[in-house]
Amino acid sequence: MTIYSRISGTGSYLPEKVLTNKALEAHVETSDEWIFSRTGIRQRHVAADNEFASDLALAASRRALEAAGVAAADLSLIIVATTTPDMVFPSTACILQAKLGAKYCPAFDVQAVCSGFVYALATADQFMRSGQYQNILVVGAEVFSRILDWEDRTTCVLFGDGAGAVVLQRSDAPGILSSHLHADGSHAGILSVPGSVSGGKVSGRPLLQMEGNAVFKFAVRVLGEVAEEALAFNHLEKSAIDWLIPHQANIRIIQATAKKLGMPMDKVITTVDKHANTSAASVPLALDTAVRDGRIRPGQLLMLEGVGGGFTWGAVLVRM
Ligand code: ACO
């Protein structure tokens, strides 16, 4: 019998502090009109000084575990996607495991920037299909506010902090139909944080830099391609997708992707207006929002898509 992963619970968390576009006008030369018309973003959430990726992950995970009716002690694997870990090591997944009070299950981080959640979900599904796992927690958690140059208006207006989580449970029926991951490291230069820790010092510039136009074009192209690839693999037509849940970076990238797929925007989940680009947290934040408000219903087919630094990109087709 084939083993599948089924999403049995979702959860998300946004830090309390909200930073609106209007408030940003006091920091950099920008305007709500410029930001909203170019990106669809109205506001972002910013973690408190004493809040780390693992804290955001903890709040989202507790909600997902509660929704799934699974106890932390019964988790057989924890995977956290993050680009902004609490520290160099241990992994944020291990720190989260301790905070959840789970013990002994394997726990590790996945680093694929804004594709992180899609990469982590695909990885979790492969573990599940091995037959050795029952309940897997998959989290995307980011404090991107910590790696932004708050004086650079071309980047600081685009990102925010947050976390989203899902509980996958072993099932005889799909579940995750398939996942499709890609990377092309030759495009590393158009989006990066080119710093590292060395000899007790930070070397390089540990703040986000981006060629916005190049990222825009790359993202639209690969999101279209990987969606087609996932559909062809499953012999499905575009019309079979009930909901498209793309990485929440920019409404114009999302609209262009939906257009390529011939999907009306009312079949696309968008939350970028409320939290900006939260990198690995963006897809599970959007997913949880639409599960909790009742738009996503059991039996529906979802296309989850991520794209981000690396460059990395991927799609996961999920039957709810
Ligand atoms: N407020 C006001 N003006 C600004 C701002 C700002 N925050 N930022 C840039 N400008 C100015 C520029 O300086 C430029 O001025 P100039 O014409 O005098 O030189 C002007 O606005 C136009 O700049 P462009 O970069 O051409 O603006 P564009 O319309 O291309 O939009 C944007 C820029 C929004 C970054 C766009 O390229 C984009 O969305 N790129 C995708 C980036 C993205 O989403 N990255 C997320 C991370 S990657 C990922 O998740 C896949």
**What proportion strand?**
25-35%
Mean pLDDT: 97
**Total DSSP helices:** 10
- Strand order across the largest sheet: 1-7-6-4-5
Helical percent range? 25-40%
End-to-end Cα distance: 20 Å
- Class of the largest domain, according to the CATH hierarchy? Alpha Beta
Bound molecules: acetyl coenzyme *A
Q: How does CATH name the architecture of the largest domain?
A: 3-Layer(aba) Sandwich
* Residue windows where pLDDT falls under 50 for at least 5 positions: none
Count the E strands. 15
Q: What is the structural class?
A: alpha+beta
Helix and strand string, N-terminal first?
Answer: EEHHEHEHEHEHEEEEEEHEHHHEE
CATH topology of the largest domain: Peroxisomal Thiolase, Chain A, domain 1
Taken together, the total number of domains comes to 2
Shape summary = globular
The radius of gyration is 18 Å
The CATH fourth-level homologous superfamily of the largest domain: Thiolase/Chalcone synthase
Biggest sheet, open or closed, and with what strands and sense? 5 strands, mixed
